[in-house]
């Protein structure tokens, strides 16, 4: 892949990030009242669920703000700090998703610990993988000569192609790049384990709700499978709408 193609892919990636940010904000506006009533004002909800919920949204906001709104022409030290913040937010998100998924299966699975433990194990793999990737990137810092540009959150090295109406032609005297995308094996393992953990949650939810649906039908109780899935905590829009951003995260 040429450097010009890399720039075009980066531009497309940034546009997708902007679209995801707009969707996230729109969803938050629509569900703000429900969030306050069901999460923050609900009695006897304990501290675990609000803590998980707050972690997901704080880290999501940090990630999206840095990805979309931070300019590229910032000092190298600033890039380093931002990437540390991004990596911490990513790891916290994976951890929060893993805890939420494990607790969900634990609650609907008769308080059995086996499957939730397996889900939690595979959910922790992306956390470890992103720590490895971040460490590799931070130890691979180097300065580029004039004629190169970097993006604060893409971690992609590139040379600006000839004049292109879709590419900013801002030239920097030097740029700081974190070579964090040089571990394809880590990315593959991260995606595979994350997908497998999500699949286990879906299979467990469908299996349990299928039995409830069958029992309800035998007792002539009309209940939809969709209602059961929502009741038992199928993946929410807010949790999964930024899953497509994992291409940036890993």
Q: What report would you give on this structure?
A:
With 250 residues, the protein is mainly alpha-helical. The chain has one domain (3-249). Helices cover 67% and strands 4% of the residues. The chain has 8 helices and 4 strands; from the N terminus they run ααααββββαααα. It has helices at residues 3-40, 48-69, 76-108, 114-138, 184-218, 225-231, 237-240, 246-249; strands at residues 142-144, 148-149, 158-159, 175-177. A two-stranded antiparallel sheet has the order 1-4. β2 (148-149) and β3 (158-159) form a beta hairpin. It is globular and about 65 Å long. The model is unreliable at 141-175, 177-182 and 232-250 (pLDDT under 50).
Query: How many helices?
Result: 8
The structural class is mainly alpha
Average pLDDT: 69
Separation, N- and C-terminal Cα atoms:
19 Å
Helix content: 55-70%
Beta content comes to under 5%
Outline the biggest β-sheet.
Answer: 2 strands, antiparallel
Rg, rounded, reads 21 Å
Order of helices and strands: HHHHEEEEHHHH
Low-confidence stretches: 141-175, 177-182, 232-250
Task: Write out the strand line-up for the largest beta sheet, numbering strands in chain order.
Answer: 1-4
Structural domain tally: 1
Overall form = globular
Assembly level: single chain
- Give me the count of strands: 4
Keywords: Membrane, Transmembrane, Transmembrane helix
Domain DUF6533: 17-59
Protein name: DUF6533 domain-containing protein
InterPro entries: DUF6533
């Amino acid at each position: 892949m040429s450097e010009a193609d890399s720039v075009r892919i980066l531009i497309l990636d940034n546009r997708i990030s902007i679209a995801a940010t707009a969707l996230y904000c729109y969803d938050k506006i629509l569900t703000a009242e429900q969030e306050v009533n069901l999460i923050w004002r609900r009695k006897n909800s304990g501290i675990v669920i609000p803590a998980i919920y707050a972690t997901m949204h704080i880290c999501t906001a940090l990630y999206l703000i840095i990805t979309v709104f931070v300019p590229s022409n910032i000092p190298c030290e600033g890039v380093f700090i931002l990437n540390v913040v991004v990596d911490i937010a990513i790891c916290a998100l994976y951890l929060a998703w893993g805890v939420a998924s494990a607790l969900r299966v634990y609650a609907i699975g008769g308080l059995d610990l086996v499957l939730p433990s397996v889900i939690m194990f595979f959910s922790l793999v992306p956390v470890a993988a992103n720590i490895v990737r971040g460490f590799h990137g931070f130890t691979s810092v180097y300065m580029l000569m004039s004629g190169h540009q970097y993006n604060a959150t893409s971690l992609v090295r590139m040379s600006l192609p000839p004049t292109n109406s879709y590419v900013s032609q801002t030239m920097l005297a030097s740029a700081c790049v974190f070579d964090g995308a040089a571990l394809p094996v880590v990315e593959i393992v991260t995606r595979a384990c994350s997908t497998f953990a999500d699949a286990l949650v879906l299979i467990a939810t469908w299996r349990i709700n299928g039995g409830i649906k069958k029992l309800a039908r035998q007792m002539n109780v009309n209940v939809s499978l969709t209602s059961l899935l929502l009741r038992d905590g199928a993946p929410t829009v807010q949790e999964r709408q930024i899953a497509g951003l994992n291409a940036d995260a890993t």
